[in-house]
Amino acid sequence: MILYQSYVPKIYFIVNGSEDIDVLPNGLAIFSSGLHYDMNPSGVDPAMHQFKGILYTFDMNNPEAKPAPLSYENFDDSAFVPHGIDFYIDPKTQEVSLFVVNRGAGQHSIEIFHFDQANMVLKHRKTVVDEKISSPNDVVAVGPDSFYTTNDRYFHNSLLGMVEGFYPLKLSNVVFSDGLHAKSVAEHFGMANGINIDASGKYVFVGSAFAGEVVIFERTDKNDLIERQRINAGVALDNIDVDENGDLWLGVANFGILDYSSNFTKPCPGAVLQVKLSKVEGSKEPFKVDDIREVFANSGTGEFKCVSSALFHRGKLLIGNPFSNLMYCDVVAY
C-alpha cells in the first residue's frame, strides 16, 4: 500500500451528520443527515435524540452556498432517519430516482422517491419492507424499483451487536430486492457496510467493515452475486463511492466512533482512501489494483470528526461524517 498525503483547502458546513452522499452528473449532490444509530451499550450522546432526519442538496458547482433541505410529496418525514442513499437514472426515460435507507422507529425500510429537480422536491413512490431487510445500512439501485442493500448486523441489541462485530461472528449479509421480493445473495460479512456498483452494472463492491476489505462480486442474470476478488485496505471501512474513472473512494471509520457516538466531545480520527483500479480481461480477478492512496486524514479533534463517506467529482471532494459536519475540498495537490 502506498500512502500519499494531499493538501486540500476546506469549507465546513454545520449539520447534524452527512452520513452518505451521492451526486448527479451535473454536480448536484444529496446527502443524508440526522442519523440516530446506537452503536454503544452506554447509549448515545443526548444531542442525538434531538436530530431530525433530513436530506440536503449541495451544489458542487457553487460550494459557497449552504446545503439546502429537500421537501417531500406524499411522504411523512416525522420519523424519517435516512442512512445510505443512491441515485438511479432510468436509461430509457432519464427519470431520476433516489433510494434511501430509512432506519426510522418501528421498522427499517428502503424508500424510493422520484426526484423533481426543477422544484427540488422528492416525490415518494414506494416503501419497501421485507423481513430479510432487517438492519439496512447502504443501498445501490440497479433498476427503477430494484436494489441491493447491506444488513450491517444480525443482532439488534447493542451489546450483542458489539459482540457480533468484535468477535467477529460474520453474520451480516447483502440482500437483493426487485421491490416486491427479497433474497440474500451474499453472506458471512463482519459488518457489511458500504455498497456500490461499477459503470457497467456488472460488478458490485461491498465494504466488509471489520475485515477491512472491499469484496468484489459479479452479478448474474438472476441478480445473484458471485465473489470474484477481495481488496485488503487494512482499515475499518464505511461507504464506497465509484468515480467517473472507475476508482473507489472509501470512507475510513475508526473504532473511536463507538466512544464518539456516546459523547460528541471525544476525538474520532478518520481518513479517505482512493483505490485506483484498472480492468483486467481474461483473469479470475476482474480488476488490477494500481494504487491505494490516503487522500485525507485527521486526528478527529478539530472541527471535523470521523469519516463515513467520500465523494469525488471532477476535482472536488465531499467528505461526510455520521453525526456532524460536511466538508468540501478542492483537490489542489494530488
TrEMBL record:
Domain of life per record: Eukaryota
Molecular-function GO terms, alphabetical: arylesterase activity; metal ion binding
Reaction(s) this enzyme catalyzes, per UniProt: a phenyl acetate + H2O = a phenol + acetate + H(+)
SUPFAM superfamilies: Calcium-dependent phosphotriesterase
Enzyme Commission number: 3.1.1.2
Pfam families: Arylesterase
UniProt keyword rRNA processing, yes or no: no
Keywords: Calcium, Disulfide bond, Glycoprotein, Hydrolase, Metal-binding
Active site: 83 (proton acceptor)
Residues annotated as binding Ca(2+): 19-20, 85, 137-138, 193, 238-239
InterPro entries, per the entry: 6-blade_b-propeller_TolB-like, Arylesterase, Serum_paraoxonase/arylesterase
Keyword Ribosomal protein: no
Cofactor note (record): Binds 2 calcium ions per subunit.
Cofactor dependency: Ca(2+)
PANTHER family in UniProt: PARAOXONASE, PARAOXONASE-RELATED
Protein family membership: Belongs to the paraoxonase family.
Protein name per the record: Paraoxonase
